Amino acid sequence: MDNIINNTPATASRSKIQDFFLYLFCIIGLYVSAIGFINLVFAIIEKYFGDVLFDFNSSTGAKVAIACLVIFFPIFVWLSKVINKSIKNFPDGANYIIRKILYYFTLFIAGLTIAVDLVTLIFYYLDGEISIRFVLKVLTVLLVGGLIFWHYLYDLRRDLTQVTSRPKITVLVVSVIVIITLIFGIIISGSPMQARNKKFDDQKINDLSSIQNSVTEYYRTNNNILPKNLLTLSQSTNYSGYKTKDPELNIDYEYNVISQNQYRLCANFSTDNTNLKSNEMNYPVTEIWKHGIGRVCFDRVAGEILVPGKIINPL
């Protein structure tokens, strides 16, 4: 009875629908994992092989890539294992049209990626713009595309009824490489606590920048007179939109008048951005807002164009 039920058209139809989504989800997991891995390796390369013309903050891209790999790579490995086990038990599953379509499409994408990658390498070589970081990125794409192409070409050609340990070895090697890459990615992106502290510090810099702009406008519209304190500034309806409190410590930022047109802004920071390049920082963090850890003060002159200056760290 069970055999009869399992061979009914309805059961076969449900099986094909299940296989369709199983293979589709597996291939999606492969694509997302491959893209995430490539982006993570790119972030690591950019971290250790810097270029002043193209360097940007790579930690955000690394975090996105890490999240993709942590979720989709295990799903891909698990679904691949389920598919291989299913084909081992039911060899006819190797002839499913959905399997061949997705696998051959993957071969097409991998082959096209390899070709474009090599064209890019030759073009930039002839154009005289080859650098270590560029070569490493090209090799990364070439290796990932080549591994995917080789694996699925082998899977389509091999005798699925024959027992072989090659797929398991491939999965093991790839998993080790992914884990090592994830470790390096976590190192360059920082811990969650570091990321939280940096966000607080970025917000503080944004707040101080807004206060600075408001003080300058106040100075210009009040006969070149600085506000006595932040309360005086906030009482003016034109400057009521900025924040005067530290979002982390919930205390007022420090504002002190030094002379007729000079003043000082102070805040407490949890991170050090003095070694970061200007194009690695979030606006408006530039050279004039670099800070160390702890209480840091910035001297400002109302009405003048700001240039990189000295950071004051009062005891």
Describe the structure.
- The protein contains 8 helices and 4 strands.
- It is of the alpha+beta class and 315 residues long.
- The protein has a 4-stranded antiparallel β-sheet, with helices on one face.
- β1 and β2 form a beta hairpin.
- The N terminus and C terminus are likely disordered.
List the keywords:
single chain; 315 residues; alpha+beta; 4-stranded antiparallel sheet; 8 helices; disordered N terminus; disordered C terminus
Mean pLDDT across the residues is 80
Strand elements, count: 4
The geometry reads as: elongated
Q: Tell me the Rg in angstroms.
A: 29 Å
Major sheet: arrangement of strands: 1-2-3-4
Structure class: alpha+beta
Strand content: 5-15%
**Unreliable stretches covering 5 or more consecutive residues:** 1-14, 307-315
- Distance separating the two termini: 86 Å
Supply the number of helical segments. Answer: 8
H/E topology pattern? HHHHHHHHEEEE
Q: Biggest β-sheet, characterized?
A: 4 strands, antiparallel
Please give the share of residues in helix: 55-70%
Compact description:
The chain has eight helices and four strands.
Write the layout of secondary structure elements.
Layout: H1 2-6, H2 9-48, H3 59-89, H4 97-126, H5 132-157, H6 166-189, H7 192-221, H8 230-235, E1 254-257, E2 262-269, E3 294-301, E4 311-312
Antiparallel strand pairs: 1-2, 2-3, 3-4
